[in-house]
């Protein structure tokens, strides 16, 4: 995990024929974090998707050493299954089935493990998706608006998890339009292309 | 990969898939004797064709549930972040869809054989043909589902996309009932062609959906 690296070099993003941003660069080594800020529609989510390899950049390159985990708007948890099973499906794909109870406890959902995902509130689903990221054990966390729907206590919990992940040599890239406390993280305002 | 197939299967069955397919198939097969009248010779003559057409519709039944919900829930994104190839995801979906509807169709065909006054040897050839042909139908359904995902009126468009490609299976499948092994071989060949091509079509469609 300590050799993890995430480099974006001269990345440009074009959506629907419109250039959202260009010449965006960042380099994160083990233990480092970056917070991408900016108003709605500037392309923060697209940047996260580019960093995740889901979207090809219009220019520039993305280099990632180490597994990536994505927390996006959609939780990607089967709503008809229990929380433990829904998170467990992804953990099994990541070869980490055994870490599920621990991850659920880490996001404060341990007691809801046997509750179907469809019964969970917005904030609880968000934390469940975070548990998927935690359980997977990927070195690079890509979090798109992670505090959306979270209350103050859960936000603090998220910040604690990010700090723990970085202490273990992980990398975190957060895109958020609201402030998130990430001590020592680089703050990169995303500017629209001229 | 096995985990993904099992997930597909669980989703197919939890949506009432098995019973739904069976009930749908039997309902359609029941319509024909009522519509045409209890003429045993006529029914025996058209029975195989009815079963094949119904199998095709049964494959099309869950087409809106095969891909779109996963795209919307971010499941496909999560697969892609984990480095799974899009075509591989499609293969898993084909396998899951086939297990979800193929055996049900074969069982329903056996049950409806009585309704359609089908002789035993024809039923045997029909079941063999379905065994060979339904995987091709499953592949076609998954490719179609990926192509029309997110479209308005996806269900209707899916029919128009899928039916022309399914015609060869229908023609050869119904033709094989007349006897002779060559019909079954043609069913198998068509089915293989669909199985080989569909994952790549579906994979490309998933890739486009991400952009």
From TrEMBL, chain A:
Recall the GO molecular function terms of this protein's record.
ATP binding; ATP hydrolysis activity; transmembrane transporter activity
GO BP, sorted A to Z: cytochrome complex assembly
Q: Where is the ABC transporter domain?
A: 6-194
The alphabetized UniProt keywords are:
ATP-binding, Cytochrome c-type biogenesis, Hydrolase, Membrane, Nucleotide-binding, Translocase, Transport
Q: Which Pfam families match?
A: ABC_tran
Record-listed E.C. numbers = 3.6.3.41
Q: Does the keyword Protein biosynthesis apply?
A: no
In the UniProt record, the signal sequence range is none
Q: Which domain of life is it from?
A: Bacteria
NCBIfam families for the chain: ccmA
Protein's name according to its UniProt entry: Heme ABC exporter ATP-binding protein CcmA
Q: Lineage in the entry? A: Bacteria, Pseudomonadati, Pseudomonadota, Alphaproteobacteria, Sphingomonadales
The gene from which this protein is expressed is ccmA
From TrEMBL, chain B:
Spell out the InterPro entries in the cross-references.
Cyt_c_biogenesis_CcmB, Cyt_c_CcmB_bac
Print the keywords alphabetically.
Answer: Cell inner membrane, Cell membrane, Cytochrome c-type biogenesis, Membrane, Transmembrane, Transmembrane helix, Transport
How would you describe this protein's topology in the membrane?
Answer: Multi-pass membrane protein
A GO molecular function assigned to this protein is: heme transmembrane transporter activity
Compartments it resides in: Cell inner membrane
A single Pfam family it belongs to is: CcmB
For biological process, the GO terms are: cytochrome c biosynthetic process; cytochrome complex assembly
Q: Which domain of life is it from?
A: Bacteria
Q: Does the keyword rRNA processing apply?
A: no
One GO cellular component this record assigns the protein to is: plasma membrane
Q: What is its main location?
A: membrane
User: What is the stated purpose of this protein?
Assistant: Required for the export of heme to the periplasm for the biogenesis of c-type cytochromes.
| Family that this chain belongs to | Belongs to the CcmB/CycW/HelB family.
Q: What is this protein called?
A: Heme exporter protein B
Q: What is the lineage of its organism?
A: Bacteria, Pseudomonadati, Pseudomonadota, Alphaproteobacteria, Sphingomonadales
